[in-house]
Amino acid sequence: MSKQLAPAYVRAIAPYQAGKPISEVAREFGLDEAAIVKLASNENPLGMPESAKLAMQQAVAELGRYPDANGFELKAAISAKYDVPQSWVTLGNGSNDILEIAAHAFVQAGQSVVYAQYGFLVYALATQAVGARAIEVPARDFGHDLDAMAAAIDADTRLVYLANPNNPTGTFVTAAQLEAFLAKVPADVVVVLDEAYNEYLAAEHQYESTAWVRKYPNLVVSRTMSKAYGLAGLRVGFAIAQPEVTDLMNRIRQPFNVNSLAQAAAIAALNDQAFLARSADVNRAGYAQLTAAFDALGLRFVPSFGNFVLVQVGEDDGAGARVNLALLKQGIIVRPVANYGLPQWLRVSIGLPEENAAFIGALKTVLA
Ligand SMILES: *Cc1c(COP(=O)(O)O)cnc(C)c1O
User: Is the pTM of this model over 0.90?
Assistant: First the structure.
């Protein structure tokens, strides 16, 4: 056999498929960009907070310099908000970066990583990127089967990824279930609890994951500024974990992984309670609007705790792709999820009332 440029595990990676950008759909389908509705990447339909925009404008003057490699002020803001020492915080270029840093820090080729069927695709990518073996645990009712996940942990398992709420299914496991799971995981296996959608949880579902970080030295809680905080384009995420684990992750982290504008914007957004509350309100109303329409159309959907809904648009395995294409032609971008093993389903991000209405109108036409 001839020499290969990359190891087999790298060649086996199927690149991440992001939501189609508006400009690309406009070009491909000959549409006006302004008329396109994008509900494909779980972005905040309110856009970025004004407070973050102002903070960035002020930070522009210093762009000739490198960012603060340790993100002192941003870590201080996170530390104050979550009541943890700054030495417990790792900054990421989006929380994707955190997920990858964890794989590189804790797993070597040949060892294994546990995650769930329908778990966020980046878990599989990060696992493959380090040449590790994936242990994908079958889902239960589209969500994490935590008992099965605990049982699946092998002698060579170094890491468990789990998202709560999960993307793309929107499922949620309760605080009690999670805590029971954490108690079962061996102390030398790191658990990354990915809480990208935490800010959307209703008050009765909220729980204190940072309290678990105090109790479990192997727990990494991952958060993002991309969803409820409206900063997806800036790429900011962070992890909270005890110092030993944090120190190891920081050895892998690129020194300037979060740029100066992003740091400034994140500090402002973290403290913008009004924006967060408005985002949750818009999401709650949009969820009611979308699910009422699905009910009226007789479409099955998975009850969601995030800012998106997984909806079944047909009974055959071509349904997702077919309906997706028909929606694109009408200028509606949603997310097909065949790559998650869900070819009959689409994932729709919750938008503004008029965006949801445009999607519902187009869906009715397509399904008629
Ligand atoms: C969107 C998302 C993320 C992170 O996105 P970043 O923009 O990289 O912070 C992480 N996990 C899940 C489950 C997500 O859906």
Answer: yes
